[in-house]
Amino acid sequence: MKKGWIYIAISTILFSTMEIALKEIAGDFNPMQLTMTRFLAGGIFLVPFAVNTMKKRGVHIAAKDLRFFALLGLLGIAVSMTFYQLAITDTNASVVAVLFSCNPAFVMLFAALLLHEVIHRRNVAAIILEAIGIIVIINPFHVQIGASGIVFTLLSVLTFALYGVLGKRKCAEYGGVAVTCMSFLFGALELLAFAGMSHIPAIAGALAANGLDIFADIPFFTGYNIENVGFVLYIFIGITGAGFASYFTAMEKTSANSTSLIFFFKPVLATILAFFILHEAVPSNMVAGIVLILIGSMANILPGLLKTRLGKGRIGKAAESNP
Questions:
Q1: How many whole angstroms separate alpha carbon 69 and alpha carbon 19?
Q2: Hey, where are the domains in the chain?
Q3: Do 266 and 101 touch, CB atoms closer than 8 A?
Q4: How does pLDDT run across 119-137, given as a tens digit for each residue?
Q5: Where are the transmembrane segments (predicted)?
Q6: Of 103, 112, 159, whose CA–CA distance to 134 is shortest?
């Protein structure tokens, strides 16, 4: 259990620095190029962890599931993470980090709709509070944040939540690390295929003519230099590879509720780091929105943590009374 909390701490730190690190090199790379290469590197990094997990379970990837993993990669990586990278490019890193931390609430909503999982009153309260928090941060009556950045972030959150829910059933069969590894690799390969097509003159011309220049002539190897190589390695191997490996290891060693604490601490830590590193302003409406999101997160997480703690307490007492 103690090792599990170490993995939670590692994931929290890595995920909280994600938007900041991506913001630092956003100007050096095409958004599609950066998404494609970091998830390809992250997927390759996760291969030995995935193989080890499947060996322990005594399972192998079935040929019939390859189509499912391709769809999962398309949704969670090619679509969701492209929106995410566009959001990072277009708005403050702290705003993206805070809004993306609402992901668990949307996961609950999709799980109830698609998997028919029971949704409790505390879950509804969490969704409402986090929705209000988002509105407060956006501040629609005095908008100071790029509207496109907000839209990209929310589209990323929604599609990533759907990706998580659809992948849940396969996680029970193959393990979370294996499902993540396969979706990373398929998503990166799909982006690679699109990047190749973007160099076809007719396609590149049509995209550019419709204001979609970032999707035309997507580069493969440009942008790398001695100044950004540290950030590149940190994002590709640290955040994308080790971050997700730590996240799923934490889930295996603790519980889903305990691991959800990552998204409780992330908006606070990411905002503080963005303030000191990127010198991003933290207006009062953003502070109020963060507080509402934290209250909503705690309303969702705390009952599960208390239930787990009480359950362990009862087991411990039963063991003491039956030596």
A1: 26
A2: 2-321
A3: yes
A4: 777 777 877 887 788 778 7
A5: 5-22, 34-54, 66-87, 93-115, 124-141, 147-166, 178-209, 229-249, 261-279, 285-306
A6: 103
